[in-house]
Amino acid sequence: xxxxxxxxxxxRECIHxxxxxxxxxxxxxxxxxxxxxxxxxxxxxGAIFQNSxxxxxxxxxxxxxxGMCMHNCPTNNITIEDGIVYGICSRCGVxxxxxxxxxxxxxxxxxxxxxxxxxxxxxxxxxxxxxxxPEYLVTEVSRxxxxxxxxxxxxxxxxxxxxxxGAIHVKIDRDxxxxxxxxxxVDVCPNGSMNKYQMADKSTCTLCLNCMKACPNNxxxxxxxxxxxxKIKQKPxxxxxxxxxxxxxxxxxxxxxxxxxxxxxxxxxxxxxxxITHAGAIEACPIHTLREDEEMFIYDEFDxxxxxxxxxxxxxxxxxxxxxxxxxxxxxxxxxxxxTVSDDCISCGICSEVCQEGAITxxxxxxxxxxxxxxxxxxxxxxxxVDAIPRTTLFKYEVEDGFNFIEQKLCMHxxxxxxxxxxxxxxxxxxxxxxxxxxxxxxxxxxxxxxxxAFLFERNFKDSIEGI
Length: 468
Fold this sequence. Notes:
This protein is of the alpha+beta class. The protein is built from 15 helices and 24 strands.
C-alpha cells in the first residue's frame, strides 16, 4: 500500500495522477487502497490478479462488473463506472513519484502501519486479512556449495569426469585430439608409467592402452610401440557449471524422493516407485544440471515397468575438490546475499515471475526480497537481462524473441508503459500507445506496469554460457 504522511496538504495531485482512481480524500488527506487482497479473494470470475509489484489489477476482459469486489472492500474504496472497476491499487508508484508526502507502506514497520490505519478510523474490521511484514526480519541469506574459482580453473574437465552424479558440466572449446591435462590417463595406468605431466615411461609401459580408452579428448595415440600424448599448447576457452546446492529441486520433488537434509541434497530412488515424473523439478532447475539418469532405473513390479531416477544434483561428497588437487580450482564456498541489486535494474519483473519461492516483489528501479523465503537458487539472477542481481554461476538465460501487443480496447491510456520502458519501445500515436517491435527487447516492464492488463505478451529464453 501507499500511504500519506502527516504532512499531506490535500492538494489532490496524487488523486489526479492515479491511473486506477485508487486514491481519495478523507479528512483533508489522501487515502488509497490497502492492497489487502480481499477483492481478489472474493472475485467470482477470477478477474483480479496480483502483479509483480504486489498490487492488484483488474482483468477487464474477464470482469463482468458484478460488484463483489466493491461490496467486500473493507475501506469502501472500490467503485464501478461505466462497467469499469476503479479503486484498486496496482502499486505502480505514480503517486509516490509526484508527491513527497506519499510513502510506500510496504517499507514501514508493522506497528506503524496498524497505528496509521487505525488512527484514520475508516477500516471496517477485519484486520486479520490485511498482510503485514513479519515481526522479525532476515537481513541476509547464505548457502554452502562446491564451486569453482574461475581464475584458477584450466577447464580440464577432471571434476566433471569424477562427479558421481554428473552435477558438473564442463564445456571446453578446444580442437579435438588435444590433451586437456585432466590426468585421467595417470589415474588409470596400472603400472604408474604415466606421470603427472602426461608423459609415458617406455621402460615400464605395457601398452595396455588403458590411457587411450580413458582419454575424453582422444589425445592419446600409439606410434612405433610408444604412447604419444598430443600436448600442443592451446589456451582453452569454455565454461564450467555445477549444481548450486540450492535445494529448489527438493522443494519441487513430487514424491519427496529428493530431500534437503541439513543443507545437503539426499536422494532415495526407492521412493520413486509411483509413476510420478520429476518434470517439475527438472524444468525448474535454474542451471539445468538436474536430469533423468540414463543409466539407472527402478523396476516397478506392480506396473511391470522401469521408472527413471535422477542425476545431476550435488551430494556434497567433495570428490571434485579431491581430484582438483593439482590446480585447486574446486572449493567449498559460501554465498551470502542481503537482497540488494545494482542500479541497472529496469523493473522488467522477470525475477519476480521466475522466483519459485515467491520471495521477490518488484519496485520501480529495484526489487525487495523476502530473505526468509529466498533459498539462493539464483533463478532470478540467471534470468536478469541486465545482470542487476549478483550470481555465482556462469549459466545464463537470454531473451531470444517474443511478441508484444497492446489491446487498445483494454488500454486505459495512463502512459505507465511508456514511462517505464528503458528502451523507448512504446510509442504514443494519436493518443494511443503502441509497441515499437524494432526496439522492444521483450523484457516485460511495460506488461508489469500496466494496470489494465492490456498487453498480449510472450517471450522465449535461450540458454547461454558466459565463458571464463
